[in-house]
Amino acid sequence: MTRDEVDVGRLAGTVSRLRTEIDAARAAADGRALLEVAKGILVERLRCGPAQAARQLALLANSAGTTQLELAVEIINEVSGDELTAVPTPAEEPGLAAAIRLRTAESGVLQAGDAQSVAGSLLTHALAPLGAGAVAIWLVGADSSLTLAGHAGFAAGEAGRWRYVPPGVSTPARRAVLEREAVWIADLGESGLPSVGCDLPGRVAVPAGTGGRIAGVLEICWHSTLSPQPLGVREQVEALAELCAAALDDAVPAGFSSPAPSELVGLADGLLDPALVLGPEVSPDGTTADFRVHHVNSQFADIAGRPPTAVAGQSLLEFYPLAAAEGGLFDKIEHVHATGEPFRAEQMSLPAVVDDVPLTVTAGVSITRHGALVLIVWRVRDETARLANLLQHAQRLGRVGGFEEDQDNGTIIWNSQLYALHGRDISSGPVPLSEITRYAHPDDVPALSGFVHTVLREHRHASAAFRLQRSDGVTRHVRVIAEPVLDSRGALLAVRGAYQDVSAQHWTEVALSATQDQLAITTQEAAERNKLTLQLQQVIMPPTHPTIDAFGLRVAVRYRPAAQEELVGGDWYDAVVLPTKQILVSVGDITGHGIKGATGMVVLRNALRGLAATGAGPAQLLTWLNLVAHHLADSILATAVCGLYDPHTRVLRWARAGHPPPVLIRNGRGELLPMLPGVMLGAIAEASYVEDEVVLEPRDTLLLYTDGLVERKDLALDECLERLCEVAREPRTNLDDLLDHLLAQSDSDTDDDTCVVGVQLL
């Protein structure tokens, strides 16, 4: 080993030893500070001198079997009653050890000369035992920027790269300021937020401030991803942030300053707009309860008309009580004061009360924080500027452009909307009213020439509509209005007027006219189609059907089409004696109206009649009819009831496909037949149906019907069917009379077709 290497080794050892001695000296100094605080407490409580207090502290520690430092911490905790050591500590750390550690951190922070020392003391005494690897203290600037005032535990050069964070850059510290609460991040990389010490993934950023103002942020970093922390650790971190906040105002780095009140007053007085300098009024719980007016500049004009001397020194909420409304001026000022984030609005309502009458003024407002004070500046919008702005927007929305022509000097003034309407660049200059015919469609030139003559020669108000042909090939439909300005002798001084783009209105009128023509054609076609549908329906389904008397059975039918022709639907019925000597009775209802409903009705009715000739039962007939509806027709959906009566056995077999069940009237009582299962026709490709049978007795009457007889929009179907049974119980002299009575008593409100088939055994 060379001599130089030996010298370097000795020097390194010396540096290490001195660093250890310095750390020990600092720890001893912190311990001595705690001992001195405890002695001061004993002096006050025992009313003794410092020497006696020192002896008493040593005697008590010896009697309790503890060290003087531990006893001093217990005395301080007992007297202070603060929250620094009242929070829970990790389970592996004894409570007294945690108390000594936190009180030592407090002592180190309070004695620190700068934010760098504060950061080192916090990391050494309070945060490293919690597993933290680094700590950063950020100061919030008046422009909401962040300056790294103190740090400890970061790699060499890392802190230098993060000395300053401009406004608007989203970091964990920025989020803590804006959200005004602790931000816990499990993994910095996954969060997407940049910050100092990117190789330390776990971290928490806690806002630190006093008097309702966030002065800075305490950011603590861990070497690994951060799992959810127990409540004790979270409360301990927030307590450390409060401890850090107490020292932030004194621990300001070089070059970091905020304007003194005199400088802020000078700034306010140099403004040409009204300005107030406000200071916070802090409540006992540490929140900002109000703001006091510290200064009023010379341009100040109270929106309620009060003199500046009446405002200076007043409470903001006392002077402007309506500012306390949620989301109002007070909330904006309080947010700026707490976070340092400036607020600016082009238009904001400033409320006030004048003689118990609320008054609101619209103004542009700027609110900024300067140290512990807030500067608010506003500019009430001038009425003339407001009206001009309103007129400009009205002209833009109405596609109107104004002009004025001076006849003496030939000056022509166009606004920007008029240049846009004519498709001309401002550098091309305006077009005189006398030359406007050069830009009109040839067919419109005669009428436009008459308009120009009326205004410029006859000196009378006039208007005209024409097609403006622009240089870019676009044609616009335009209406021009102009009026002359005359002197006392009737001589023309100027012409004022406006052009309005009515192209949209023109084409709307054209489209409306075409739509009206098409609607008239469509209405005529619909009327003819409805008329044809009604005729087709009346031919196939007449309102009455010849009564069938066969084998002791009487069948009667009533059919009532829909009241409105366009609602003519697909209700159908059938009653016929089959070659097998059985009698087929059926009713059905096709979904839809018009031609489609009528043609669908014809398809199913004729198909059922043909299928019935095979001798199959009602269930099988409906199965086949479902195949017809699903495969052989144009997407027909229908309900139906089908019955076959055998005169030899007096047995009526029946089945249903989604249709209301028949009603049996026997011995003066009307009852519904069972609700047999069966889906509507055409709903699925393959369906099977169940049939039932009823033996008819002499004088029995069976009713088959469609929903147009019973259905109401305001009642459930069960209630409608029960009402039908009640009406059917009323005695009638014969079957035809019964059917007429049912139609007369029907209170259905669906405007649908109605069909009733009555089957009576004599």
From TrEMBL:
Residue stretches making up the ANTAR domain: 15-76
Keyword Transcription regulation listed: yes
Pfam families: ANTAR (PF03861), PAS_4 (PF08448), PAS_9 (PF13426), SpoIIE (PF07228)
Residue ranges constituting the PAC domain according to the UniProt record: 462-514
Record-linked SUPFAM superfamilies: GAF domain-like, PP2C-like, PYP-like sensor domain (PAS domain)
Domain of life: Bacteria
Keywords, alphabetical: Hydrolase, Transcription, Transcription regulation
Record protein name field: Transcription antitermination regulator
Organism: Lentzea pudingi
